[in-house]
Amino acid sequence: MSYLPAEIPGPEPLFDDEGFWAACQERRLCFQHCTACGHFRHPPRPVCPKCKSFKFQWTEAADEGELFSFTVVHHGAHPAIGPALPYNIAIVRYPSFDDVRVISNVVDVAPEDLRIGMPLSLLWERCGNGMLVPRYKRRE
Amino acid sequence: MTTPTQQACIVGVGETEYRRWGGFADQSELQLTCAALATAAADAGLAIDEIDGLCSYAGDRNEPSYMQDNLGLPKLRYASLVWGGGGTGSCGALLHAKTAIESGAADVVAVFRGLCQGQQRRYGQFNAARPGNNFLAPFGMFSPPNMIAPLVQRYMHDFGIKPEEMAEIALSGRDNATRNPRAVMGKKPMTLEDYLASRMIASPLRLYDCCQENDGACAVIVTSLERARDLRQKPVRILSAAQGTNAGWGTGALGTHNMPVEEYGTGNGTMVARQVYEGAGVTATDIDVAQIYDHFSGLVMMSLENYGFCGRGEAGGFLADGCIRWPNGRLPINTSGGHLSEAYIHGMNLILEGARQIRGTSTSQVRDAELCLVTGGLAGPPSSAAILGA
C-alpha cells in the first residue's frame, strides 16, 4: 500500500538525476555534495551554483527532515489521483545540508494535524513503475 | 539614449470576447488572435499592413509565420518570443516591443496573446511535458495550485495572515468585474461568505483564490511617440519594462522549491521591481493604480510587498485597510477584475487595462491616474513588469 495511487507517474531517471534515483533504490536519500566547495544542492543538476564546479559526490542525508511547508490537495489534477484525495504535499527541509528541500508526502498525519516545523523521518514506498521513492512519517 | 520622440507608446488595444474554458467551438485560436490584432490596429487608426513587428511570450502557439500569412503583412522586420511559462513574460514582450521601436528595428509592433485552452490542454491539469516532473509528479504535485500553495502556506504562517485578509483580493477583483462588460464573472457578485464557503483546492488556496481558465485573445499596438501624435488615441508611454529574477530561484515554485530559504514566501519579485522603478525613475509612492498578475491571490499579497506598496509581512493589514479597493483605496488594483474575475489571458489583458487607465477609459477609472504598474507572472522566473504613463 502506497500513499498515492500506483497509476500516477513515477520517476523516469535521466542524465542528471540517475544517481539520485539509483541511491533511492538502495533506500538511501542522497544529495549532491560539491567536492570543490562543499555546497549541497537538490534537485540534482550538473553544476554547483556556488562555485561552478562540475565535480560532486552523493552524500547521504541525516535523519533531520522537518516540515518546511505543505499543502492539502482537495482538487485532483490527474485522472488517477481521485482515490487519494485529500492528500498532502510536503516540502521537507534539511537544515544542516544547506537547507535543501525535498518535495514529498507525509503518510501518517491527518490534514488538520500537519504543522510547519514538524520533525519528520524517511520511509520508502514503491510507486507504480516499481521504483522506491522517499516519503515521510512523523518523527517521535 | 532614447530621444523623447522615439519613446515607445501603446497606441491601440484590442481583444476578442472572453469566454470560459472551451467556449470557442466555432473559431480557431489563430482566428481569434488575428481578430485581436485587427481590432487593436483599428483602435489605433493604423492599417494592419503597417505592422512590421510581432512579439509574444512562451506558450503562444500563434507563430509569426502563421500570423504574417493570415494577416498578409507585407514586411515583417522583427519577431520575438520571451522565455518563461504562463504569463511571466507578458511585460517582457512589452520590453521587446519597446526595444525594437526605440532602436529602430521596427516601426509598429503588435504584442499579443492568443489562448484557447479549450482547443489545447488545461493548465489546471497534469502536464507530462513539465521539466523536473521526476521530483513533482510522483508526489502528486501536478498543477500550478499544488505548486504555489506551499509558498502561500509558509508566507501566511510566518506573518499571521488571515484568510479574511487574503479574501480581499478576490472580493475587490470581483467588485471591479461587475462594472466591466468584458468580464467573464461580471454578473456574479461575491460576498466574504461566498468566498469562505468556496471549496478548498489546495490549502490555503480556495476556488476563488485561483484564476479562471479562459479562452480569448488580446493585443496592443506599440509605436514611437512621434508616430503616435498622428494617430487616433491618446498615447500611453511605456516608461519602463523589465524582466528579472532573484538569484537561486531556478524554476522556483513551479519546480524545485529550492529557492533561497529566507525568500521562500516572497514570490521572487524584488529584483524586477527595482529594475522597473529605476527604468522609469519613479518609486512605489508615485504609482496611482496597478494591474498585478493574479494567477493566485496569495501571490498578489507577495507582489504588493515586492513592489514596495507595503512592508514585508504587511500585506494582510494593507488589504484589511481597503487599500486596493476602487475608488477610494490608496492603490486600486486589477480594475478590470484581473485574472480572477475578468479573464485569464496570461497577463495580456492586464496590459490592456493598464493602457485604459492611462487613457482614462477604464470601467473602474482611477481619478487622474498618471502612472500604472503592470506585472507579469510571479514565482515562475523570470517574471516581468512595466510602468505605463500619460
Secondary-structure blueprint:
The complex is a heterodimer of chains A (140) and B (390).
Chain A lengths: L17 H8 L4 E5 L5 E2 L14 E5 L5 E8 L13 E8 L5 E5 L15 E7 L5 E7 L2
Antiparallel strand pairs in A: 1-2, 1-3, 4-5, 5-6, 7-8
Chain B lengths: L7 E8 L3 E2 L8 H16 L8 E5 L6 H8 L6 E5 L7 H14 L4 E9 L27 H16 L3 H15 L14 H6 L2 E3 L2 E2 L7 E11 H4 L7 E9 L25 H11 L8 E3 L5 H10 L8 H6 L17 H4 L6 H12 L11 E6 L6 E7 L1
Helix pairs in contact in B: 1-2, 5-9
Summary of the model, kept short:
Chain A is mainly beta and 140 residues long. Chain A has one helix at 18-25; strands at residues 30-34, 40-41, 56-60, 66-73, 87-94, 100-104, 120-126, 132-138. The relative contact order of chain A is 0.23.
Number of DSSP E strands of chain A:
8
Low-pLDDT parts of chain A are none
Tell me, briefly, the overall form of chain A. globular
Mean pLDDT of chain B: 96
> What is the multimeric organization of the chains shown?
heterodimer
Order of helices and strands of chain B: EEHEHEHEHHHEEEHEHEHHHHEE
Please describe the biggest sheet of chain A, giving its number of strands, its sense, and whether it closes into a barrel. 3 strands, antiparallel
What share of the residues of chain B does DSSP label as strand, in percent?
A: 15-25%
Q: Tell me the structural class of chain B.
A: alpha+beta
The N- to C-terminal Cα distance of chain A equals: 23 Å
Would you tell me the overall average pLDDT of chain A? 97
* Amount of beta strand of chain A: 25-35%
Measured between the Cα atoms of the first and last residue of chain B, the distance is 20 Å
